[in-house]
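User: Let's play a game. I give you a shape written as tokens, and you guess the letters that built it. Ready? Here's round one.
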């Protein structure tokens, strides 16, 4: 279907909308003339070949696929008729039934990419409504493969949970990295050196895990087996409640995801 469809991104002026647009164009899946982007306020100075509009209904009328990329709290005010269109939501908490009812289409996909879409490394879980066609599912895969890795999951409850685990996911290693950098600076390492070394650890670990394709438990236990400095650090972190803190954080994210849909 490459080059044979048009896409509109409601909220294309925002950060995630811009990242999705960049991935679609950069992968060659879409040409700029086949992309429409809506914005509020001042028109962004990027993607000059795309069609920019403040009118969301105009965007929808021009598009085969309409991607809703706004804050969940802003979504109820978007009275956009998407009859006959494939609607793809990347909003946390808004369920398939709500999307279908509000936008007058039974072809609906709910997905949750993450911040790494900006560099083509997102993980995106998604689920389609019963009314979505085989072609709709194929197109959804292509769209999110342009941003990284995707999986069709079994239920909307999976999406609710993964909203925290993978949708919020890039923030978690970033939080760990920030704590490591702060400790290094506190112990006299210059901020520039601390930032470079911690960022290098983060990037290198991601690449190592990606290439080895091992369960993270295997990587952890490999280091534990050496019984050296790494094992000492890991044992102390675990004793301080590291794993339970992660579980509690993911539970909080799940509760927030569900509540966002209930309040819309």
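Assistant: Ready! My guess for every position:
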């Amino acid at each position: 279907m490459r080059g044979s469809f048009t896409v509109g991104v409601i909220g294309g002026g925002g950060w995630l909308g811009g990242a999705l647009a960049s991935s679609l164009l950069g992968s060659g899946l879409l040409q700029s003339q086949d992309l429409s982007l809506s914005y509020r306020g001042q028109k962004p100075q990027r993607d000059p070949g795309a069609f920019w509009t403040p009118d969301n209904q105009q965007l929808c009328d021009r598009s085969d696929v309409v991607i809703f990329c706004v804050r969940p709290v802003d979504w109820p005010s978007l009275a956009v008729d998407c009859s006959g269109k494939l609607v793809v939501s990347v909003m946390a908490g808004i369920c398939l039934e709500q999307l279908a009812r509000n936008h007058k289409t039974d072809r609906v996909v709910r997905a949750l990419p993450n911040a790494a879409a900006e560099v083509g490394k997102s993980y995106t879980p998604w689920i389609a409504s019963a009314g979505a066609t085989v072609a709709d599912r194929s197109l959804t895969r292509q769209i999110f493969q342009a941003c990284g890795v995707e999986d069709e999951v079994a239920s909307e409850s999976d999406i609710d949970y993964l909203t925290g685990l993978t949708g919020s996911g890039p923030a978690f290693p970033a939080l760990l990295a920030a704590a490591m950098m702060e400790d290094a600076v506190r112990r006299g390492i210059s901020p520039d050196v601390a930032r470079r070394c911690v960022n290098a650890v983060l990037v290198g670990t991601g690449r190592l895990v990606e290439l080895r394709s091992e369960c993270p438990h295997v990587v952890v236990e490999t280091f534990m087996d050496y019984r050296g400095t790494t094992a000492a650090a890991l044992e102390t972190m675990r004793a301080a409640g590291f794993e339970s803190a992660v579980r509690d954080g993911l539970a909080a994210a799940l509760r927030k995801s569900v509540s966002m849909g209930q309040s819309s």
